[in-house]
Amino acid sequence: MTACRSASRLSDINAMLVTTCSSLLSSFSIIPTDNTSSTFPLLGDDPVHALKEVAMEHQFFVRQQNLKLYRNLVAASEAAAAKADARQEKHLKLLTKEVANEPPPRKN
Q: Which residue among 27, 40, 85, 86 has the highest number of C-beta atoms inside a 10 angstrom radius?
């Protein structure tokens, strides 16, 4: 996404949040405690910067979750491979015993 489109999307989100929060503030009769940001008392002076921070934190969280899932997948794959190796080794031992117990071939 280009910088222009990103800025456009952020301004659209900002406008949507301003509209939503303004309507929420008026419907619940909440009065902001400070005058620095009357629309977003929790976001501070720059709601776009705050939204970028929230998006970055969310992206970090998603990456951490993906890393956790990947590690679990690798562990499960290694466990399955170890189980398959053990099963194959067991079959080879049984085959070795079976071959050892066979009578020698007859000579005519």
A: 40
